[in-house]
Every structure is written in C-alpha cells, then in structure tokens.
Amino acid sequence: MPALSFLKSIGKNFIFLYKNNFKFRLGFTLIMILFILGFAVSPFSPTSTRTWYVVPRDRPPSLEYLLGTSSMGRDVFWELCASIGKSLTIALITALIASHIGLFVGLISGIRGGILDRFLMFISDTFIIVPGFLLLIVVISIIKSWITIPLLGAIISIVSWPWPARQVRSMVLSLRERTFVYTAKLSGMRTGKVLLFEIMPYVLGWHLVNFTNTILFSIGTESGLAIFGLSILGDNTLGVMLYWALNYYALFRGIWWWITAPIITLVLIFISFYLVSIGLSEYLHRIIG
Amino acid sequence: MYFATIFSGITLTYLLVKAMPVDAVENIIFGLTQTIAGVYDPESINKLRRDLYEIFGLTGKSPLEDYLIFIRRVFTFNFGPSFISFPTPAFELVLRRLPWTIGLLSVSTAITWITGNLLGTIAGYFRTRRFTKVLESIAISLYPVPYYIMALILMLLFAFLIPIFPLGGGMSVIPEGLSLDVILNIIWHSLLPALSLILPGALGWSFLSSRTLTLEVLSEDYTRYAEFRGLPGRYVLRRYVLRNILVPQVTVLALSLGGIFSGALLTEVIFAYPGVGSLAYRAAFAGDINTLMAVLILSMIAVSTAIYLLDLLYPLVDPRIRYR
Amino acid sequence: MELVLRAVNLKGGYSLKSSYASASQHEIYVDAVSGVSLELLRNEIFGIAGESGCGKSTLIKMLYGYLEPPLVLKDGSIYLYTKEGKEIPITSLTKEQLKKDVFWRHVSYIPQSSMNVLNPTMRIRDHFAEMLKLHAGMNKEEAYKEAEKYVEHMGLPKDVLAAFPHQLSGGMRQRVVISLALLMKPDLILADEPTSALDVINQQAVLTMLRDSQESFKNTVVIVSHDMGVHGVITHRIAVMYAGRIMEIGRTEEIFEDPLHPYTQALIKALPRLGDKAQRRGLSGHPPDLKNPPPGCRFRPRCPSYGSQCREETPSLIEVKPGRYVECWLYST
Between the N and C ends of chain B, which has fewer C-beta atoms within 10 Å? Predict the structure, then answer.
C-alpha cells in the first residue's frame, strides 16, 4: 500500500535525522518538553488559571510556588503551562491553514505559470510589502470583543501564507526544469500525475519546513498582538501573560519572575522550532541538492 | 510597479475592512461615547458616523462607488479625525510621529545591514575557526527571536538590572530648537530601541544571509582563481567576496523591510519611543479606527517607497545591470 | 637542454568521505595520479593527452602546487627551476609561501572553463592592475599604463580594458585570461583544456596566441587537452596519460607518425586523415574505476596485445630511444 510505505519512509527519515543531526535532536527534544508542559501537565493545575486571586499575590519563586505568583493572584508556573498550551494551539491552527494555502497556491502558480502565476505572485508580493502586523492590528482592533482562539489562529494565517507560497513556487520552478520532470511530461504523463509522483516528494519536505516556520511566525505575531492588547485577554497565552505583566508594571515593581518566565519560554520556543527547521533544511539540502 | 503594489495594498485593506460585520461601526461609536463621554456633540458624532460608513464601504451605494469613495479619501489623505486626540485629524498625528520612526528604522537598518554583511563574510571565509562556530550559534539563537522580545530582554538587562539607560521616552524634556544637547539626548534615548533592532538583525538574518551568500561566492570559479593567482586572503574577501554578495544582499534587504517595520512597532511601544508604533498602540487601545487606518496606509506607502528607492540602487552595485 | 620542472613519482588523488545519507564514515580514495614522473624543458610547448578522467587535470593542479581538498598529494616531489637558476621545491612549500613567492611569478595556471574566472564586478584593467600591484609593486597609474602597453602587445583591442567581463565574448575572455597568465612572464604556464569550450575560430585565435607568446617569451607551456588535433597543431612534445599513469612520452611528430604504446596507437588510428577513407575505429571498453584500479598494467583490459606479464606486474616508463619513453611490457626485456 503506497500510504503505508510512505509513512514508513517518513519514519525512517525522521529516525535518521534525529540520530545524526544535533540541531534537530536538540530542537525536537525541547519541543517535546514544551508540548508535554503545555498539554499534558497543564490540565493538572491545582488552582484555576483564569480566575483572579486564587493564591497570595506577588510572592517570589519558592518551593510552594515554583515560579512565584503574579499580581493577579495566580501561580505563575501553572499559568505558564496553560499559556504554552494555548499559544501552541493558536500557532498550530495558523500553520495548518497558512502553510496549506501556501502549498496550494505555490503549486498551482509554479506548475501553471503564465498569467495565473503572475497574478498570484502579485497578490503575495502585496502581502510582503504591507506590514502584516499593522494589518492585523487594524482588523483585530475592530473585532476584538468576539475573537476566539481558533479565529485568532485563522486571522493570523491571512498574513502568513505568502512566504510558504513563494517558497513552494520556487521549488516547483526549479524542479520543473529538471530533466526527470521533462521526461515524465514528454512521455505522456498527465499533469496531475507528474505533480503527484515526481514533484510532490521533494516539495513535501519543504512543506514541513514551512509549517515549522509558520508556527514560529504565528507565536511571535500572537505575542506581539497580545502586548498591543489585541489578543484574548481573558485567556492564557504567553503573549497575554506578557501583556498583563507589562500593564502591572511588573518590572518596575520588582516582580521580575512574572515577566521573565514568559520571555524565557518564548525564546525557548523560538529557538527550538528554529533548530528543527534548520535541521530539516540541512537534511533536505543534502539529499536533494 | 511601485504604484501598483501600493494600490493593491490599499485595496486589500479596503476588502478586509469591508468584510467586517455591519454593526462594527455602531460598536465603535458606542465604545467611543463610553470612553470619551461628553466631548462629542451629536453633530460631530453624526459626521463621524458618515465618515466611518465611508471607510467601511457601507454607504449603501454600489460596491464600485463605495470603493472609489474610499480610494478618493486615501489619496486626499482624508483619514478623518482621530479619536484619541479629537478633533485633530488622524493624518496629522501620524505625520508628526512618522519622522521619529523613519529615523530610528533607517539608521538601525543601515547599521544592521553593514555590520551583518561584514560579520557574515568573515564568518563564511574563516568557517573552520572556533569564533565563527560561536557566532553561528549566537545567530541561530537570535534569528527566530522577534524584535520586541529582544527589546524586553534588553530592557530587563540594561534598564532594570544595570540601570544605565532610561526606561523610555524619546527625550527627557521638550526641546526648544535643535541644539547639540537636544540631538545627543535624542540619540541617547534611541540607543536601546536601536540596539534591540540592530542586535537580532546584525547577528541574525543579516549575518546568516550574508554568510550563506559568502559560502556560495567562495565556491565560485572567480574567487578560487583569485587565490590561484596569489592574491592575499583579506583582499579577496573584500574585492571578490564582499563586493559580489552586495547585489543579492540588497534584494534581501528589500524583502525584509516590511518585517523590520512591523517589528519596530512593538519595540517603540516597549521603550515608549514617540514613533508611529506607540501611536498605533494608543489607537488600538482606544479603538481609534481612523488613526489606525492612517497609520496602516501611510506605513504601506513608506515601506513601498523605501523598497523602490532600494531598487534604484541596483545599477550602482551591479555592473551587469548598469551596462547591458 | 635546460630543465624547468622535474616531477618525481607523483601519487595523489581525491579523498572522499562516503555520503551523508549512508551514515557510515569510511573513506573512499580515487587514485587519480599514481606514480607520474616528468621532466619539462625550457622553451617548449608540452602537451598532455588522454581521454576524460585519465588524471591529466589532476596532474596539472598538482604540478601547480594548489592542493585544495579533496585533492591530496600522497607521495612524490616537484622541483621548479627558475630562469635565474633557483630551485623551488613546490611540494615542500606551504600554500601561503607559494602564494607569496611562486604563483604567477614563476608558474601560472589557466583553468578549464575560463569563462567564469573573472570577477564580474571588476573591470579588465583592474584585473591586470591588481596583479601588477601585488607582484610588481606598482601603484594604480603605473599599473594601468603597463596594462595598456601589455594588452596591445598581446594583440587584444585596447577597449577591452574598460569593459566588465560580461560585456566580452567567451573567446575574448579566454584570451584575456591567457594574457593575465603571461603577465609576469613566468617560467612555466599550465593550461587546462584552453580550447575546449570554444568554437573553431576562437580555438584558432587562442592557440595562435599561445604559440606566438611562447616563441617571444621563450617560456614553457603545458597544454592539457583530450583533443589530439590541438596537440598536433601546437605542441613540441607530448605525454599520453591513461588511468593515472603516463603511457608514452615523445616528440609530437614521432608520436603521430610512429606511436609505440597500444593505447597511443589506438588514439592516433582514430584520427581522421586527409585522403584516408578507411573507417575510423575507436577503442572498445572504458577506463578502469580508479577507486579500485586493476592489478598490473591499467590498460590491460582494453589492450589488443596484452600478455601474461601484463596482469601481474605494472610496467614502468622506460627510455627506448633518446627522448622517447614508453610504459609497456612489449618494449622492455
């Protein structure tokens, strides 16, 4: 069955990459830890992370409160775990939508070429020039009263799809010129089949890289929006933590643990996903060339 | 080409805003009257309502006419009054702040690009030495981190832990004219924001792209031939490597401008720098759609203009374009 | 006859680690040059002939002294003799020393595909100027003036100097590169396939340029080419290489009229001749895999006249007549 052997080959590639590429290994391990903290550990929080004043306020880190407590009376550690989960969720939604739109657009653009290609690229160029973040600010500030987690993820994907589209398109263009694709087409293969069997295997690897990069972009954007007060302020995401910490002047008042925890976590998320991304691209460069 | 992209950007904004649900306008006006109650008289509120309907393309006439009205407003820079400083026009607010942002960004980006180029070339040439491995590890850690995180970290380190720099503001006192003291004061206050833009750039994307390009150029025939002929390493680095990565690096710069601009906005907010970003922050907070639109559209124009100016640089650096 | 270069028993090749994808780290060594000894005389054009992959380009790079990975020199020594009488041990010097004192001044190198060896962002006159500044200590004005004189002397149009490489045709670029190589009047010039990427007209121009400058400067030019026609036109002596070893050396006329080694005979027989309408016959088979060379004589698998000794022992290069060397059991007792 082609699907089964496909999955098996993915598994083999993954194991090889994990064993041999230090960057990938490090990044992937960190991501696993983050995922566990965000999704497996956080439901066990003893106190609620969404209501206020459940624990004494402004306590520094101690044995009882691992990362201290915030000015809103919440345990920072448990808030952090919940936030990791929510931020990752938003990022995953964005990545799923945007990278696939990008994949689709890039494939069509690259394979069909001509006016369609120029038109699609013109649109995606527009997005590259327009400061996407500002666009999001405008849009979300209008609808901020009824924004939800999935909706936020979807909206961020509006500005995230052009990069994967461009990347996939240039991949397709360079593959199109390679002899084996010419041969396939000249020997009568229909465009659809050419797409599936000759081009897709190469593109899929890069699709994964784009997926990872979109996650990065989305988390960065969501946190940024949150600082502007344009995220879901009643819920926990890493950005929202930053927002409240900044608005309570945590740093000025010496409550450094409240703001440092999300910052360090965000940096870790960025580095770990990026490591996975470059590990993957190094590997792809070696086997595709 | 330049105008086409600006145009499509404006159209895009229009379409997105038009997609907002109908009672968004009413929500805005409602929110407005709640927050700045008593300042408005019914006359100006009605005018505002009409204005907003025009912006949102809801005047009830044909879709094409709505669009044209929008376009006309944009091209006459009629963004309506701002809410946060009613009745000052939004356009004026943005115009006052734009020079600060442009100043900060152009200087930071220029320094980033130059430094990143130099560092990347050196790292690419001496890729076996230990210090390049260290540089590369730093770059990998810094590249994916958005500017504002760097800003927060810098603020933590230098304004909090080791309080050297001021925690914010563009300058300490309102100036009375442009003297050396005032200029120095401005520079001092811009240092941290600039640093938080320069560090992730010069050690991040600029460094990495420059290093990748250097590695490519090093394997080119003409670079190896330069070594064959006895030319010393430093000279080759300058005249063969650096000189030849400039063209793709200009392209990289042009593509990054949109991202740099976006990133700078938050940095301004964090350092309370009196640029367009802080304005957008206050506007977003207050739901001031007029000002936000003004910021968005003027930023689009600013970024497009910058990219266009960069395009003009190409013939200067690439003899292949200069002499066809 | 004065010696300009002596190479003794050169052994070298390409050391490759096996590919990333198979995850094991053993080394593969391609034995490209195995035991080559050569003597080059002053004031001659020396050709190195052979099919693709026989090692001639590798040999040339080794003679120049520029060993960049994965190229390694495993054994052997090279001595260059300058016209001032100095002996330079190429193989004992570091690349830095070579760059400082030897490259371009005493020996220069013209690589294959010279189309792309010029800096796209530098004008031609700056290419000459940088060499003059580096090797002759001139400043910019002196260098430009000298470049003008030199370029005229070499028969290139003067407006070539102000141009950028992309504005010149391939043939013109090749001639510029050759002029560059001769600029410092080195004792030895190594040219790797100088005519291969060119059309016939440009080939003619390049060969004429090489021959004329050799006649006027009285230096030594080594031309590596798989095209026997090139050797016939311009060289004084030829060495025929096969699978990393030299099979035959001799004066060009002798090699063409009376080839001794079976491989040389096949090469010559494959050339078209005026008036001879017989069918050309090539040699069947292909060169051995140099990762795993065959024992004994490397030509044996394709040789029409091999004997039992050919499989057991590798023959060595023997002087059968003054100046005539052959490596074949047919000629040694």
Answer: C
